[in-house]
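Run folding on both entries below.
>entry_1
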Amino acid sequence: MKIEVTPEELRYIIRCGAALSQNVPEKSLPTYCGFDKRQIVDFSDRMRDELDKAGLDM
């Protein structure tokens, strides 16, 4: 599967993921969104790397 998003949409996804892991109790994350804190952080890191590779600021 391939999904395309704009740089601004990608920024939104990363920021919301980071905020989610900071504002929801860690033990509630899997119930709330289906991902644990480590998965959210790993995804955000990977997406930031993609922005960096494309030369786009976060």
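>entry_2
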Amino acid sequence: MSEQKGHFESGRWVEDREPEAAPETPETPKAPQVDEMVHEASTSVKKAIDDVVHLGKHLFGTKEGRDHLEKKVRAAGAELEKAIGEVAETARRNLERNG
């Protein structure tokens, strides 16, 4: 004869129920270790620096790169010239109106 596990509650014997098995959940992936994260960030920064150095060598060391820089500088110069012209025109109009 087997005895049922239980306890007294308000003067009565109450049998304990077998705990139901918890539903299985998929194992959560482990959080990356700090050392791994530092290594990944370091590798990423190193690659970014290498890319910038490579770009600099290409821009200054090849005809194609120098042509690209010249084109960008000329465009920036044109924008600056346009802005100076607009400021001068606004100043001229203000002088005529107030003068």
